[in-house]
Each structure stands twice: as structure tokens, then as C-alpha cells.
């Protein structure tokens, strides 16, 4: 596994329950990766110890819907069980209380 992939997984493991980050935020902390690549890595993380459900689109959309609507429902259920709030149209409320601020997100990465 490459160092940048390990960085992504290490970072996502440290997103606290009840908080989210966008694919772009994760990518910005793990150069040279792009938001799209982070999304691909989260798809590979299903069934692992990595809380993939805490990574969402920058507008709060659950991008897993593109892959499988049932997966998006699972993601929403996980997030709701952690106290994450949603808008009426089904997006995560991207408020400072729910989004990890990358500027203050301290994490030791490989």
C-alpha cells in the first residue's frame, strides 16, 4: 500500500464519531491525491475498520448513492446513529459543528 493511501486511511480512522469530512478535505491533507481518488479508496474500505461513512461530498451529498442506493441508506443510518444531522433533501448539514476543520484537525500520519 502506498504512503498516500495509508495517510488517507489513517486520517479517516481519526474522524470522530458525529463528524464528517468531504472527499476534497481528505485529499487536501493527503497530497497528491484528488477527491475522486479518495472516493475510490473509501469504496475499497467497505467492510474494514475504516469509518468510510464519515466522508461525504462537499455539499453534504452521500456520493455512495451513485454506486448503490442501499449503500447510501446504510451510510445515512451510520451517520444518524452517530448524531449527524441531515437537511430535508437528504444531505449532511455541513455546519462547523459536524464538519472536521482540516486546519485544526491534528492527526499523526505515516
Please characterize this protein's 3D structure:
Helices cover 41% and strands 4% of the residues. α2 (23-29) packs across α3 (35-44). The chain has a single domain, classed as Arc Repressor Mutant, subunit A (Orthogonal Bundle). The chain is globular, with a radius of gyration of 13 Å. With 110 residues, the protein is mainly alpha-helical. The chain has helices spanning 3-13, 23-29, 35-44, 64-67, 69-81, and strands at residues 21-22, 55-56. The termini are close together. A two-stranded parallel ribbon has the order 1-2. It contains five helices and two strands; from the N terminus they run αβααβαα.
Uncertain parts: none
The CATH homologous superfamily is termed Winged helix-like DNA-binding domain superfamily/Winged helix DNA-binding domain
| Number of domain modules | 1
**Strand residue percentage:** under 5%
State the shape.
globular
**Name of the level-1 CATH class:** Mainly Alpha
| Helicity range | 40-55%
- Secondary structure class reads mainly alpha
The CATH architecture category equals Orthogonal Bundle
Instruction: Please tally the helical runs, counting DSSP H or I stretches of 4 or more residues.
Output: 5
Give the CATH topology. Arc Repressor Mutant, subunit A
Task: Compute the CA-based radius of gyration.
Answer: 13 Å
**Biggest sheet, spatial arrangement of strands:** 1-2
End-to-end gap: 12 Å
- Average predicted local confidence, pLDDT: 91
Number of strands: 2
Amino acid at each position: 500500500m502506498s504512503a498516500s493511501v495509508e495517510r488517507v486511511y489513517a486520517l479517516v480512522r481519526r474522524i470522530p464519531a458525529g463528524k464528517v469530512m468531504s472527499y476534497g478535505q481528505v485529499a487536501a491533507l493527503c497530497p497528491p491525491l484528488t477527491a475522486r481518488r479518495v472516493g475510490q479508496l473509501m469504496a475499497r474500505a467497505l467492510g474494514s475498520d475504516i469509518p468510510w461513512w464519515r466522508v461525504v461530498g462537499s455539499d453534504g451529498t452521500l456520493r455512495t448513492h451513485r454506486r448503490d442506493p442501499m449503500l447510501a441508506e446504510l451510510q445515512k443510518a451510520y451517520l444518524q446513529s452517530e448524531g449527524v444531522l441531515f437537511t430535508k433533501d437528504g444531505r449532511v448539514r455541513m455546519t462547523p459543528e459536524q464538519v472536521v476543520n482540516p486546519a485544526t484537525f491534528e492527526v499523526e500520519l505515516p
